[in-house]
Amino acid sequence: MSLNIIRITKGWLVALAALATHAAFAANAIERVEFSQLPDQTLVKVTLKSGLAAVPSSFSVAAPPRVAFDFPETENATGNNALAANVGTLNSINIVQAGERTRLVLNLASPNHYETKLDGNVLYIALSNGPVAAAPTTPAAERSAASQPVAEQNHVALNNLDFQANSTELATIRIDLSDPSAVLDAHKQGNNGLLLTFADTDLPARLEKRLDVRDFGSPVDSVTTKRYGKGVQVSFANHGDWTYSVRQIDATVIVEVRKIVDDPSNLAGAKELQGKVISFNFTQPVPVSQMIGIFQDITGLNFVVIPGISGEIQSLKMENTPVNVAIDVISRMYGLGFRRYGDIVMVGTAASLAAYDQEERKRAADLVKSEPIQQETFNIRYRTASEIGQCLVTPQQCSGGAAATQTGQPASGQAGYTPTTSGSGSAQAAGSAQQRQSSSIISADGSISWDDATSVIIVEETKSRLDKIRERIAALDRPIKQVMIEARIVQVDANFTREL
Q: Within 13 Å and on the Cβ side, how many CA atoms surround 276?
């Protein structure tokens, strides 16, 4: 009996410890999620156990259209992981808890704009059901607004625009505003156009101009800034295959136009990520490791994180940014690198990836050393076997002409190699590894011999080395270009003139 009591007591202690740990990290909880449809918008109401200091970080994806909010140190106390909505543009809601974090995902029928408002322990999320009609104005009101100076109508102004060509593949445009509250819209125009529109923004006369930047060799040909109603438009004329990203840090808008380069080993340039657009709005610090998890959810790839990644993204705002560009920007900001192997992506710092690459090269070298030695015979057609053999042993002394060899003597500069140029059979190249040139295509464990009488080269090497030697011989054993000289004899006698 006493033993049973002890076991029960230990079990209760473990349960109580688990509850205490759970309560320690769950500082807050989502208690209810409600939604309703209004005439011009869909409203989502999230009620929490306690109030939030700021609006939680969020990001949106265009395909499939959805908006996600991350609540740190918050548990899901609603009792549901999925809610069917089907009101307005809202299809359903997912509430997923992972460790100390709960993610609220709004699955939409189409990409949409959203606004948030925090009221105590309630978070309101408003989704627009369509374009909101502007309030009607009277002719008198229009004349009154037109008569006012532009500086009084708009409190935001475009102060400066700076163009910089980082390389032939990247152009960066920095736009400085007088106030960070400017409303910005960016979208493509056809295949070669990019248009930025700042609503209710002033433009000084000195900045209303067109910049011809073709001489920089970047994907951008020109940048034109002009007034557009009560706002400002900045249009880009680009060429080739390109993509763009727009991010705003305080009162500075940074536009990057990047040439699309297909590199299978580079995650940021992967073709399957082209066309996917994402928006970020991080108002609270987000660990970089959590950001990598967001990329995994968006791309559908499997990310493996090498230990050593640290740091937090303090604040970040990106609107309609291609996923590959967002990955590239964040990786450069925090010194991250990627190595892709099919659907698996390794993420690490520059130092950890360099150590990994060094280990990979060492492993590949060890595999080459463990390969078995094979023998292969090559028949030479257009040049002598000694010439080709000399080029394989000492590539730096191969000039394309005849190698300087003598019958029964080593080739020039090749102590230890004794090829035979007479028809007395094949002679082995018996030099030691220390005597061979470091640039030789023949490894220390291999051997090469040749015979000019039969135009044959015999090589003993590993399979990977034999493949390289085969390619080298095919490139060297080619017919030498010749010039044909033609002569004609014309006989003329004394009757030639008379007959002519």
A: 22
DSSP state of 434: G
E strand or H helix at 389? helix 385-393
Q: What CA–CA distances, in Å, run from 176 to 130, 134, 425?
A: 31, 29, 81
Question: 201: helix, coil or strand?
Answer: strand
What is the pLDDT at residue 269? 57
Cα–Cα distance for residue pair 202/230, rounded to 1 Å = 7
Q: Supply angle C-alpha 82, 84, 323, rounded to 5.
A: 70
Q: Count Cα neighbours of 322 within 13 Å in the Cβ-side half-sphere.
A: 24
Please state, rounded to an integer, the average pLDDT across all residues of the chain.
Answer: 75
468: helix, strand or coil: helix
pLDDT of res. 378:
92
Per-position DSSP letters for 56-101, written without gaps between them = PEEEEETTTTEEEEEEETEEE-SS-SEEEEEETTEEEEEEEEETTE
Most confident stretch, 298-307, 400-409, 428-437: 298-307
Whether 450 and 388 have beta carbons less than 8 Å apart is answered as yes
Residue 438: which residues within 8 A CB-CB, separation 6 or more? none
Cβ-based neighbour number of residue 223 at 10 Å: 22
- Burial class of residue 128 (count of CB atoms within 10 Å of its CB; 0-12, 13-18, 19+): middle
Single-letter residue type at 434: Q
Tens of pLDDT along 81-129?
888 888 888 888 989 887 788 889 898 888 777 888 888 889 989 887 7
Residue 477: φ, ψ to 5°: -85, 80
